[in-house]
């Protein structure tokens, strides 16, 4: 069972074009801890990280994971943005989270992606209702869905200040570039809200 914080938005199989962060200087980088992999091989690359996992058929997705603790402080009411680029030549399924760094691992931002061989940008944002100190939250990726390699680059978790999180969640290409009718678009939008 996944525990979500109130107001959490879960987005599945979504690739997003980058949305500009506020130009008012309010953004603060929050990543800062030491990256660590659990039951997966971790390789630092010039772009980011290459993670190779070989889960057994009965493995839980979180049994093979990658984490970077957040070192910054978040105050109640701030919007937090998670943005990264990812790909997998093995077309693996994965999740990207900002979550509590310990039980019950409550998800503040959650996105699921079926990765392909080309780099795509994934992002999600939410307004934080509680304050968090350094080390209380972590960026996490689940790798236990299948055997293969996932590459991550340009991982950012940013505190954007008191801004509306919705613009960072509405640029989803939920159709993978395919042209769709207004009726199909309305149905998909109604389903995803």
Describe this structure in words.
The chain is 6% helix and 42% strand. A hairpin with a 3-residue loop joins strand 5 and strand 6. With 193 residues, it is mostly beta strands. The longest helix is centred in the C-terminal third of the chain and has 11 residues. Strands 1-10-9-12-7-4 form a 6-stranded mixed β-sheet, with no helix packed on it. Strands 3, 5, 6, 8, 11 and 13 form a 6-stranded antiparallel β-sheet that branches. It has a two-stranded antiparallel sheet with strand order 2-14. The chain is globular, with a radius of gyration of 16 Å.
What structural keywords apply?
193 residues; 6% helix; mainly beta; 6-stranded antiparallel β-sheet
Distance between the termini: 21 Å
List the strand order in the largest sheet: 1-10-9-12-7-4
Helix content: under 10%
* Average pLDDT over all residues: 78
Classify the beta-strand content into a percent band.
35-45%
Query: How many helix segments?
Result: 1
H/E topology pattern: EEEEEEEEEEEEEEH
How many beta-strand segments?
14
Rg, Å, rounded: 16 Å
By secondary-structure content and strand pairing, the structural class works out as mainly beta
* Uncertain spans: 6-25, 170-193
The biggest sheet, with number of strands, parallel, antiparallel or mixed sense and barrel status, is: 6 strands, mixed
Shape: globular
List the helices and strands and how they pair.
Elements lengths: L9 E3 L2 E2 L11 E2 L6 E3 L1 E5 L3 E6 L11 E5 L9 E9 L5 E8 L6 E8 L5 E8 L9 E6 L5 E14 L10 E2 L8 H11 L1
Parallel strand pairs: 1-10
Antiparallel strand pairs: 2-14, 3-13, 4-7, 5-6, 6-13, 7-12, 8-11, 8-13, 9-10, 9-12
